[in-house]
Amino acid sequence: MLTSEYARPLVGKPYYRNIGIIKVYDRHNRNYSVGEIIFERFDDQNFQYIIKPYWKFIDQIPHGLFQGIPGIDMDLKKEAYYRVNMTPTFISMRTPSESRENVRELMKSVGLDYYDRFEWLLRSEMRCGDDNLIVVRKPTDNLRIQSMEQVKNRYFHPGDVIEIDNLCDIKSSNAKLIEHLFGLLHSGVKIYIKSENRYIDDNERRTMLYLLRNMLECIDRNNRNRREEGIEEAKRNGRYTGRKPIKLDEQFLKQVAITFLNNRISEQEAMNKLGINSRSTFYRKIKIFRT
Predict the structure, then answer these.
(1) pLDDT at site 155
(2) Which domain holds residue 199?
């Protein structure tokens, strides 16, 4: 049971502040901003973590994808949750403790010559096997992108701005564009319509997300149907051999699994080394190496 002293905000001005954005990933590797976490240090050696859920974005996330932020009671619907002079569960479950045997090596692996578990988390972008959440650094300045063509391979955060000429420019036949826009809206960016000299409001955002989600579901369903039809045709022609299991060298699998489980590489790095694209397959493969 959390006592009030650990949840009462510290007063005064911190001399150090670091901020990360909590994102949830779906099976298509699309990310959704669900909140931010702030770490503050004060002159008297006190410190606090502040977790601020993005309630208006959380309410628009597809059902079943987001299971909450571990360690806080989200049923309380607070604007901010404080953890004073203690490390919250969300941080402790995905970062190395100071007493860990190889902690210096882990800090050095991300360029740190001192112990800072929150900074380590931001630099390593470590995922935890128990959830589909990741923490990325919140930039000091917001991005302003002039067109949808510039959105590839970027992290977007609440406060960033994407400019488009007109909503009609978004063609319903362009599946990749639909997916990009869907992800952008869930990341919390502002969409500025140049022809109307305005930003889309929250009601428009909710409507667009609803429509885009349904369009993506239709695209996924059509793709699955085409794959199934192709499989059935291959079966009729005697050319279907079934899905081949991923073959991995046991020693190499063990090496990568132990490296990952010791937080020396990220989940994505481990999956890339093993040539595995599915998170469920990855965790099934390394299950035997967990202690």
Answers:
(1) 65
(2) 144-236
Q: Mean of the per-residue pLDDT values for the chain? A: 82
Work out the burial of residue 111: count CB atoms within 10 Å of its CB; fewer than 13 is exposed, 13-18 middle, 19 or more buried. Answer: exposed
Report how far residue 77's alpha carbon sits from residue 51's, in angstroms, rounded to the nearest whole number: 12
49 and 173 assigned to the same domain? no
For CA atoms 112, 7, 50, 184, the dihedral sign is: positive
Q: What is the pLDDT of residues 170-206, one digit of tens each?
A: 655 567 777 777 777 877 788 888 888 998 888 888 8
* Assigned domain for 89 exists: yes
Structure tokens at 66: 């987001």
CB atoms under 10 Å from CB of 260, counted, come to 23
Q: Residue 176 in contact with residue 215, Cβ under 8 Å?
A: no
- Number of domains forming the structure of the chain: 3
Packed helices 202-236 and 175-187: angle between N→C axes, nearest 10 degrees: 140
- Cβ(131)–Cβ(65) below 8 Å: no
27 and 10 assigned to the same domain = yes
The answer to whether position 243 is within a domain reads no
Instruction: Say if residue 10 is in the same domain as residue 46.
Output: yes
Question: 55-95 pLDDT, tens per residue?
Answer: 988 888 877 888 899 999 999 999 999 999 999 999 998 88
- Residue 241, in any domain of the structure: no
